[in-house]
Inverse folding.
């Protein structure tokens, strides 16, 4: 069953993040993916995440699909104008990539090519709208396509949103987002609040996959709190990591408990470990998946 | 107003190889920002002299980007004819206009940053992106192309944390737009999807 079929049929779906290599050697990436083979429904392949230059996710997705993985290709608005975005999407469709996750992309000054021209020709709402047009057989200028795309497009969201950000999330759905992958969740109660608000604002048909980061240490949690937008590790979690004899194990345990709690709340989880996927299989087993 | 900043003096020295220099300030935006008025021109003259250059004259034009003819500049400042190089303390617009009429090389003393303004005595940057198709009324008079580093037209990006921009310490401009639209009773405008900009309207040569 494909990622799209599973998610839309209401079955609890598991995705995991994979980063393309900084270089041409994909051995490490394939090894990473190998660790989660058959326990995730799709691998989510990042697009120069944190504005650090890496291999194009299009090529990485293609390599992964040759090894039997279903992929979700990240697509940021940071590096390409509407011509490049569309031609990459047509190329992706030709390579058999079915799922796209749209986001604005961290600003270039955050990464390793600080002097790069920030493009942002389209914003995520407009990019989602453009994918909807490609899916209906037309490009952004209204020209007919010789063969249309059939992307299952998603968007990202934080779970603690200002009113302005919540309105934007609604616009992403209106523009064509069929699923949402959220920033890392640590508090099931607060996350339920987000789900209630989203669903009562008309998001009932939209599948929501909650981001999960198994924390490794107190230091790791503090780093995420101060450096990653939209991540808020609660004090209680930090205290537990601090007092644990093995903080790594405590982090996995907490993540597994959280996944169990989220099963009745949302449509899936997205595992984003800090570092490698060495513990992802164990985490999912502990969570009863 | 065109917002500029002073170049590092050592960078100016690195590029200006000529000895006999004529300095031209600008009485408009650069003067207002204390970057190209008489005091700044005199300060530049002093520094160039200390560095072994010969400043053979100086002037502050009423507007460096609005010159009738080079003859007019020459008639009011005969020394400029003897200069090997001109150092222009204005925005890039001024340097370009002077370059187009002067026989010597013109060097910029400022870096041009954005189209901004002055409000309550402080310089505000990046108010306008000169996109060629103004629709600021949809955003309560706060241009997201000019003020949001990512130019987001449909709402804030996910990088904003507690109302602060991910790029610098400024408030997320989308929070300001939301607040102002609310106070104007026009919040429905933020819910409408804004289509991609037509960039062919920008920098068009007619």
């Amino acid at each position: 069953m494909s990622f799209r079929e599973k998610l839309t049929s209401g079955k609890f779906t598991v995705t995991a993040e994979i980063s393309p290599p900084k270089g041409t050697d994909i051995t490490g990436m394939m090894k990473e993916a190998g660790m989660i083979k058959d326990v995730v429904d799709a691998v989510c392949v990042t697009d120069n995440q944190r504005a650090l230059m890496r291999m194009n996710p299009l090529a990485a997705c293609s390599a992964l699909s040759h090894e039997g993985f279903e992929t979700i290709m990240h697509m940021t608005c940071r590096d390409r104008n509407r011509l490049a975005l569309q031609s990459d999407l047509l190329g992706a469709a030709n390579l058999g990539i079915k799922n796209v996750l749209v986001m604005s992309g961290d600003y270039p000054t955050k990464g390793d090519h600080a002097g790069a021209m920030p493009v942002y020709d389209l914003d995520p709402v407009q990019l989602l709208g453009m994918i909807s047009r490609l899916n209906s057989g037309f490009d952004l200028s209204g020209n007919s396509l010789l063969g249309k795309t059939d992307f299952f497009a998603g968007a990202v969201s934080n779970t603690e949103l200002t009113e302005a950000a919540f309105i934007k999330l609604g616009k992403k759905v209106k523009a064509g987002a069929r699923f949402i992958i959220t920033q890392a969740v640590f508090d099931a109660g607060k996350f339920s609040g987000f789900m209630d608000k989203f669903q009562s604002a008309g998001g009932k048909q939209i599948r929501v996959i909650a981001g999960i980061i198994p924390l490794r240490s107190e230091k790791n949690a503090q780093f995420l709190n101060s450096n990653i937008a939209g991540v808020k590790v609660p004090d209680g979690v930090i205290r537990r990591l601090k007092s644990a004899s093995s903080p790594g194990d405590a982090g996995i345990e907490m993540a597994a408990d959280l996944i169990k709690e989220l099963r009745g709340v949302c449509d899936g989880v997205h595992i984003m470990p800090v570092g490698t996927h060495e513990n992802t299989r164990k985490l999912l087993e502990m969570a009863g998946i | 107003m065109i917002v500029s900043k002073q170049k590092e003096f050592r960078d100016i020295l690195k590029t200006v190889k000529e000895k006999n220099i004529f300095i031209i300030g600008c009485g408009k935006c650069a003067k207002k920002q204390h970057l190209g008025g008489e005091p700044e021109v005199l300060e530049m003259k002093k520094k160039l002299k200390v560095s072994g250059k010969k400043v053979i004259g100086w002037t502050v034009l009423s507007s460096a980007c609005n010159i009738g003819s080079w003859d007019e500049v020459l008639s009011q400042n005969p020394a400029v004819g003897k200069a090997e190089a001109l150092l222009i303390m204005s925005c890039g617009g001024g340097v370009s206009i002077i370059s187009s009429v002067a026989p010597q090389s013109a060097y910029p003393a400022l870096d041009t940053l954005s189209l901004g303004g002055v409000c309550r005595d402080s310089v505000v940057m990046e108010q306008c992106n000169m996109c060629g198709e103004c629709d600021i009324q949809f955003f309560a008079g706060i241009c997201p192309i000019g003020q949001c580093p990512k130019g987001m037209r449909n709402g804030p990006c996910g990088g904003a944390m507690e109302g602060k921009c991910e790029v610098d310490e400024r408030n997320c401009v989308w929070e300001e737009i939301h607040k102002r639209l609310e106070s104007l009773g026009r919040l429905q405008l933020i819910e409408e999807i804004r289509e991609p900009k037509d960039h062919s309207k920008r920098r068009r040569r007619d």
Remarks:
- The longest strand of chain A covers residues 13-18.
